[in-house]
Amino acid sequence: MDKNHIIIFDTTLRDGEQSPGASMNTEEKIQIALQLERLGVDVIESGFAAASAGDFDAINQIAKQVDNICVASLARALERDIKAAGEAIMPAKNKRIHTFIATSPIHMEHKLKMKSDEVIKKAVEAVKYARTFVDDVEFSCEDAGRSDVEFLKEICDAVVSAGASTINLPDTVGFRLPSELYERMKAMVDFLGDRAILSAHNHNDLGLAVANTLECIKAGARQVECTLNGLGERAGNAALEEIVMTIKTRQDALGPLYTNIISKEIYATSRLVASITGIEPQPNKAIVGKNAFAHESGIHQDGVLKCAQTYEIISAEDIGASKTNLVLGKHSGRHAFKDRLITLGFDLSEDELNSAFSEFKALCDKKKEIFDEDLRALVSEEITKIPEIYSIITLSSSACNNGHTSAAISIRKMLENGEEIILSDAALGHGTIDAIFKAIDRISNSAGELKDYKVAAISKGKDALAKVDVKVKFGQQTVIGHGLDIDTMLASAKAYIAALNSYLSMKV
User: Fold this and answer.
1) pLDDT digits over 486-497, tens only?
2) Which residues have a Cβ under 8 Å from the Cβ of 325 and sit 6 or more positions away?
3) pLDDT digits (tens, 9 = 90+) for 266-324
4) Environment class of 221 (CB within 10 Å of its CB; exposed 0-12, middle 13-18, buried 19+)
């Protein structure tokens, strides 16, 4: 192993998906996985196979479609979890089972209700069983940040002897300070030596995830577990883009350490994740926030114009975020369209390109100028589409400032035999959105409960493309849907129907 190579273990599809409202369907996960491979991550934690049939399927599909990236599945130290993980990742060329058990006193006493020797025994059994499926086993000491260091040495020695090749020491609740994690990681690196790769997995509860991760690297950790845009439950995980660009930018302090990340793919990957999850990075987010390269101060503007390095330690181009915003229109040809998509980080198949170009032309009939952000949204929406059981044909609505509003909608339904039927209905509601969603529920005989609704303008101008993200609960399942259109009401209807289609696809 190259001691200077920092292994990037991306957990956007597992830990990142645990962000409230960030659930993704299988097709969306596949598209993110393929982009993560283009980005150059070494390991992708594609999910938790035992969690649900949907998770298992997504992991299995990713394992079949990626090329060389290592595909990992999380598993508790339980035989049924490990078996599900092993079966899900089986098609992958490179595969890993990531099994874990809690090691902190508070977790062992209150959650596991197990003694320390019982925890060690369970961990060893889990690693040995995982080795019957794969050669590459990672073991995590859940809540290592609050675990006793001597106990960590004892359990890690045991699982390494049992066959674990990577040891992860997560600060599960984001409790530790950078100096504390440095000392802890250094102690474990010195103890295990070359017997295993040490991994850092830090949460951002105190805003220290990236700083903590960098200290772990300095202490000898050679794998870091992170997510795009810092997604993750509660305050999130260490942000991949911040770790990678810090290592790249601060070679004076961190050289000769390096990653395999292709930095020009960072922005495209960030935008894809944001588009699919509906969770935008805050404007002042480092590296990928929309204000990351914005300068409002006159002094700063003057300095940047004279020499960009006066106020920019990295450039937009370094991460693939071109400062030029090429405008396309109805007269733009297929070649210019394809060339621009490549520049934006999209590598589409011929069928995907044809479909995206048709959508592009349709959009050109609705607005005069098509901006980069329009294209990103349009193509992301197109390549992550799941089979459409329902699709909108027409929508009309009538608003009233004193009473109920109404909506009438016609929807195409694809039957299992391949035939189509047209269904129409209308409904009254407390506002236009409520009326539209009620009409869709009547037609589809569903009962969706709207849990979240967000609308944003994708680009600029009065004819800006509206992107609507909804989170809808059908029965016990909560799903996300996205809709794009010039008309916000139509975009809302598309988003709700997309959520319905996603729910129905999970039931199949």
Assistant:
1) 899 999 999 999
2) 371, 372
3) 998 998 898 888 888 998 999 999 888 764 444 444 554 556 666 678 888 888 886 54
4) buried
Q: What whole-number distance in Å separates Cα of residue 503 and Cα of residue 508?
A: 9
CATH superfamily of 390-507: Alpha-isopropylmalate synthase LeuA, regulatory domain (3.30.160.270)
Here the tokens at position 236 are 């999130």
Q: State the greatest distance between any 2 C-alpha atoms of the chain, in Å, as a whole number.
A: 73
Q: Where in the chain is the domain with CATH 3.30.160.270?
A: 390-507
Question: Taking the model in full, what pTM does it have?
Answer: 0.79
The ranges of the chain annotated as CATH 3.20.20.70 are: 7-277
DSSP 8-state class, residue 387: P
CATH of 7-277, picked from 3.40.50.2300, 1.20.1740.10, 3.20.20.70, 3.40.50.970, is: 3.20.20.70
User: What stretches of 80-220 adopt beta strand conformation (E)?
Assistant: 94-102, 137-142, 166-171, 197-202
Query: In the structure, how many helices (H) and strands (E) does the chain have?
Result: 17, 14
Locus of tokens 């609050």? 146
